[in-house]
Predict the structure.
Amino acid sequence: MEKNHFMLKNISYILLAAVAAMLMQGCGAGKDDNVYITLEGNVWHTTMRITYGSDRDFKDRVIGVTDEVERSLSPFLDDSRISSINRNEDMTTDSLIDRVFAEALRINRLSGGAFDPTVAPLVNLWGFGYAEPGCEPTREQIDSCLSLTGICDCTISGGMMVKKSPGTQFNFSAITKGYGIDRIAGMLREEGVENYMVEIGGEVALSGVNSRGEKWHIQIDSPESDADGHERLSVIEVTDCCIATSGNYRNYRDTEHGRIGHTISPSTGMPIASEVLSATVIAPSTMTADALATALMAMSREAGMEMIEAMEGVEAMLVTAGADGLSTFTTRGFPPLSDKH
């Protein structure tokens, strides 16, 4: 169980295009609500694109939010708060860790343990985490890491993290990126911005309309995309929601026993071989969508869809592989799929 789009191996924040474009619609283009600014850059070792309706430049505010999230929750940053907790140096949490931990624990319970950020040692063991990749692990190594796994056996008490074991480690990467997006979106709302799209590494928070006055058009990539490409599976038109997609088609390793994906089972400690190739979730927060999309990759199609159908305000689409090619399965309220750009 681990979606590793969120990789902070590149610690520096690089803003490639501070104000890439100012898009105007209709008459009266000088009014704030008719001006759209796009910020583009790299953050957390992935791409970022933020488009919003305002004539104000929020670049510095965005950098401030992403830096705050990184200093708290990045396991790739040696002096982050979570890295200190992982090393048992200082168990003091902060408000960001408290929030992410609470949601991770909730999704862990809803998914029957399929979502569990304490699989960090296992993810590292298989070469998909923040430690240097090694050889294919032995059964003894896997079992040793499994004994440390279990977020349900961890608590936060009096502002201090209480771990299952001193060797238990947290990698909240599969929920932190969504949480960071939510914090950027919250900042924009506080500044009075009603129309925005905040996208980091494929996860997105949406509000209002785009520069053409329409709902936002969001592409869902096909699982047949390679590690660098973005082959389109479909497009959905949505607003006032958050979307996350998880899949093994971008992050995998080739071993002497074949190709393995980065989704590691918290129960077996092994990479999961599943008919589910990708999971797209629509939820009220990107943090929730992010975590649920990862959980769905560690569950059977039937169990995953049953979980989502029981949740209020959450929709999902699963893509599976079969003898006849790709198949899609959606919950009842999932938006219509379209080929429209």
DSSP finds eight helices and 15 strands in the chain. The radius of gyration is 20 Å.
